[in-house]
Amino acid sequence: MKSAFARCAGLNLLSIGILKQSAVLGNVLLCIGEISDVYDISTTSHTFFANGVLVHNSDTFRYVVTDLCHEDYIAFSNRRKRNLYGNKGAFSYFNPGTEHEYSNKIVYVVPNVNGRFLLVQAFRCGEKWHLVDIAYRQTASMEEIKSSIKEHEANPYIVECSNAYFPMVRELRETLPDVRVAKEFPDVDKRIAATSDYIREYFLLSESKLEESEDYCRFLNSLLDYNIDSENKEANIALSGLAYYIIKYLS
Fold first, then answer.
1. How far, in Å, CA of 64 to CA of 42, rounded?
2. d(CA 107, CA 152)
3. What residues contact residue 81 under an 8 Å CB cut-off, 6+ apart?
4. 39 CB contacts (<8 Å, ≥6 apart)?
């Protein structure tokens, strides 16, 4: 039960940590000489206010997290602080409501990492890359994977995979314009470390997708949970693969 509460708090705190300064509603006095930002996060049935930790209007959730889940929450918080992208403001956003001129459109696919299928759709706008859509799903269905890839516009499509997925790639080439294969990288932690600065500098998130897409949020959670000793590397493997391809072939 404690771990379930901690996971719930963690998911919601992610939304707090990546909000832009424009989302701040105001400040509240914590003690003499100190203030803290106040955020308003709406759900379908409740409104939550966040001030350090996520709280319910009745403060019940604050006590659940801090009292019952103290160790779990501290572990979660420390993990995020040690993460490559854990600093506040590490990611910036593009405005999906604005009409952008894109010079390149890439879909980067990793069909299987720990049983999860990952797809990152990125469009180039000037020097920046907009992460316009994400697929992050627990599936081994070839049909579902192929269908998801075909639904996303790009040229080229890059599939980082083992030999077992070559038949799928051949099928995709029958209907998609430019499908390429990237071999699985032998040391993903080195690639993740080598591309992290580029990702922070040139990759922009979509605010609307964070609000609308569970896949997008799960992907970002995975990205922020990474450290070199963790088993949760799926999102970082896909994003570092995309960054590595861009740096090598398009920079």
1. 20
2. 7
3. none
4. 16, 19, 23, 24, 25, 49, 50, 51
Q: Are strands 179-183 and 53-55 parallel, antiparallel or unpaired?
A: unpaired
Tokens representing 232 are: 């949760």
What span, in angstroms and rounded, lies between the C-alpha atoms of 118 and 242? Answer: 12
Among 79, 172, 186, smallest CA distance to 119 is for: 172
Question: How far is 239 from 224, CA to CA, in rounded Å?
Answer: 12
Q: What is the pTM of this model?
A: 0.70
- Catalogue all structural domains in the chain, each as residue range(s) with its CATH number: 2-82 (no CATH), 92-249 (3.30.420.320)
User: Residue 122 corresponds to which tokens in the numbers above?
Assistant: 């990125």
Of 79, 85, 82, 80, residue with least CA distance to 200: 85
- Separation between Cα atoms, residue 8 and residue 235, nearest integer Å: 20
pLDDT in tens, the chain (251 residues): 444 444 444 444 444 443 334 444 444 434 444 444 444 444 444 445 444 444 444 444 545 555 556 555 555 555 545 566 655 456 889 987 888 999 999 999 999 999 999 999 999 999 999 999 999 999 999 999 999 999 999 999 999 999 999 999 999 999 999 999 999 999 999 999 999 999 999 999 998 898 899 999 999 988 888 887 778 899 999 999 999 999 999 98
CA dist., res. 67 & res. 32, Å (int): 25
